[in-house]
Amino acid sequence: MTNEVTTSNTKVPAFLKVDKPVGNENVSNQDMQTPRLKLLQSMSPEIDSGSQYYVEGAKAGHIYNTVSGELMESVNCVNVYYDRDYAVYEDRNFGTGGFQGTFPTEAAAREQVKAMDGKPGQYVVRDTAKHMLILLD
Predict the structure, then answer these.
(1) CA-to-CA distance for 91 and 100, rounded, in angstroms?
(2) CA angle 72, 77, 83 (to 5 degrees)
(3) Residues 6 or more apart in contact with residue 64 via CB below 8 angstroms
(4) How far apart are CA 25 and CA 43, in angstroms?
(5) What is the 3-state secondary structure (H, E, C) of the chain?
(6) Residue 85 and residue 56: Cα distance in Å, rounded?
(7) What confidence tens digit (pLDDT) does each residue in 64-86 have?
(8) What are the Cα distances from residue 121, in Å, to 30, 65, 88, 104, 134?
(9) Buried b vs exposed e over 55-91: b needs ≥16 C-beta within 10 Å?
């Protein structure tokens, strides 16, 4: 038995012999959305009936799938990857609030905040943990 791997390009049709993948060349990151599971809390906009993000039937404690729009009371899942980064948000007291980006270190996030136009305290840096999951039926 051998562990060597060999490849052959001789039997591939000419139209498949291209330098780059074809079929999705016009797809960008703006066309794709990463699904997120959000544990809804009392301040979540999905619970506020006056919010543009309101989700009918959403309550604190529900889990919300941001792509499918599904509300769940529990999920069965397997954690396959964990990552931690530092997210920058605009404080809601200064406007609409909102996500401004993520950074690998707290120092990098604070440097970004210094570079942004704004008032002192307008932006908040949060240590953010992310779990990549496989949902089970």
Answers:
(1) 11
(2) 105
(3) 37, 38, 40, 44, 46, 55, 58, 70, 71, 72
(4) 40
(5) CCCCCCCCCCCCCHHHCCCCCCCCCCCCCCCCCCCCEEECCCCCCCCCCCCCCCCCCCCCCCEEECCCCCEECCCEEEEEEEEEEEEEEECHHHCCCEEEEEECCHHHHHHHHHHCCCCCCCEEEEEEEEEEEEEEC
(6) 32
(7) 999 899 999 999 999 999 999 99
(8) 30, 31, 12, 21, 37
(9) beebeeebebeeeeeebeeeeeeeeeeeeebbbbbbe
pTM comes to: 0.60
What is the distance between the alpha carbons of residues 25 and 62, in angstroms, rounded to a whole number? 38
Which pLDDT tens digit goes with each residue over 40-53?
999 999 999 999 99
Cβ-based neighbour number of residue 101 at 10 Å: 13
Instruction: Give the C-alpha separation, 83 to 19, whole Å.
Output: 33
Spatial contact of 9 and 3, defined as CB atoms under 8 Å apart: no
